[in-house]
Amino acid sequence: MSQVVNARGLTKSYRGFDAVKDVSFTLEENRIYGLLGRNGAGKTTIMNMITAQTFPTRGELRVFGEEPYENAGVLSRICAVKESQKYPDYFTVQDVLATAAMLFPGWDSGFAASLVEQFGLPLKRRMKKLSRGMLSSVGIVVGLASRAPLTIFDEPYLGLDAVARSIFYDRLMQDFTEHPRTVVLSTHLIDEASPLLEHILVIDGGRILLDEDADELRGRAYSVAGTASKVEAFVSGRGEQTIHRETFGSLATATLLGVLDEDARLQAESLNLEAAPVSVQQLIVHLTNDNTHRKAANDR
Amino acid sequence: MLPPIDDSRPIFVQIAEKIEDDIIEGELPEESQVPSTNEFAALYRINPATAAKGVNLLVDEGILYKKRGVGMFVKEGARAQLREKRRSQFYEQYVVAMLREAAKLGITTDQLTEMIRRGVQER
Amino acid sequence: MNRILGIFRMHWRDKFSLLVLPWIICGFSFVVNYITGAGLRPDEGIYTGGLASLYVYVLVVGIVMVAQTFPFALGMGVRRKDYFWGTLAAMASSYAITAVVLIVLSEAEAGWLDGWGIDLHFFHLPFVHEGPVWLQAATHFALLMTLALLGFFISSLYRRFGKIGLYAFGLVMLLIFIVGPSLMTCFEKWDDLGRWVEANFHSINDATPWLLLVAALLGLAAYGMLRRATV
Fold it and tell me: What is the model's pTM?
């Protein structure tokens, strides 16, 4: 498996703060990656560095084995769709697609045409006049039809309704099986996208929090709920790391980093607690949410 | 009716379980072809690699085998093998749990046996 | 090479802004001048600088073209180098056509149109239109390119340094165009300047190579800005 992206100690500093701090990771070819994290965590900055739209302050970044800056061989193999992409005001949807056809070597016009139809995009309308959802759809069409060996979707569905998102997932999976390539999907709709992802990277506060196989994360944590005192007893008894706690009067819930095995189930039952494994989204939310609170508490 | 994918358990395990269920229920008879990983991926909207992992799990357990260039097939004796496995799991999963609950509710062994007998008659 | 062509064709998708709009602006200016001239009818004929509207518009196009298309091109994975050459080629091809049209109109005005019937000198101006026709066309082209590349430079400056860059540029321009002439007046250098221009430039055509040089420098500066511009 060759490495499509290799980042070592990647840092991006702006005056006053570090958007990306000492980030190292590898992306292998023909896999679907999830790049997850809160707004402002550094996801977009990392993606912009991969496409040489911005430059690292420190560290090494290799894409297809080379530095991406002003590198035609590398850049022509990347298609990055971002939510904030600006299009020339006077361009129509057709102009954008025609330009994409001229710039991406692997462009499939037939595929693009069928996607345009499915999303119901008005070809002759100016980009300036498109709704937020249609603007996102154009980005998705470009991203999918480009068939670029490295395709990046950065929050691609702003304004897209559930039906359109469904179309996106379906066409993505279909095309991925027929034309495998490396896909990076950055999103905060983790639950929806999670089953599609093979590997998940979580960025928080500019650093990598998690870098694991998606299936490894499923069932990695579980939560218990019930009377507050019993929950406390359970938690101290287990000795596993708690990543989330909430109290509602006399009731409480806690999320623990551990596997909900038979032993744990019995213990919970004996204390009259509800126990259930936690979804990937909840796991990530707790890890990133409480990370922020912990940092804020430390800063004070 | 497609069972929803549970995101709190490894998906490849769920795929393996789904195939196992189909074999036990007779949906997938022995020597029949199992849907390809791409078909699973498209159907359940999951990553093909995950589907492949689930299939490979069953290959390792001797439930499925690969015919080069054609696809994955149900091995002869798979159904019997799976039923055996499920039978030993049955005790832990159902019987022990039932006894625990019965104990909680104060149901005696005799009452329990009577319930089972009634259940068999009513089926 | 492919991507330079891609950018070139991308710009040409908007034929309206590149070829038609400048002439609409120019045409508007012409109509105003024609009506005024027809009304006034001075004896020595009407010499108007209305053509300047075309050139000013070209400057604006240069700024807008880059502002609108650069972020888009970068987003499509185009190299800054390819973007620069593709845009330069689009500008050059468009303004080469414009220069030819200007010369045709200029010759027509002086010749068979006879000053549009009212001795209006809009396209054909003495001191400007001397020398062989091809040289006149070259001069127009050089002037158009200089303005277009000035626009390119201004946009690139903004992309590289943001608003601060533009303010700094504005400040520098202010200094040159206000402080400069003030100093000239102070030291009474205007006569010297006038004599120098007269000695060296018999017509605007003599300035052509210098214009091309300025255009090239602006292009170089613009490219330098784009190289480190981020989105």
Answer: 0.86
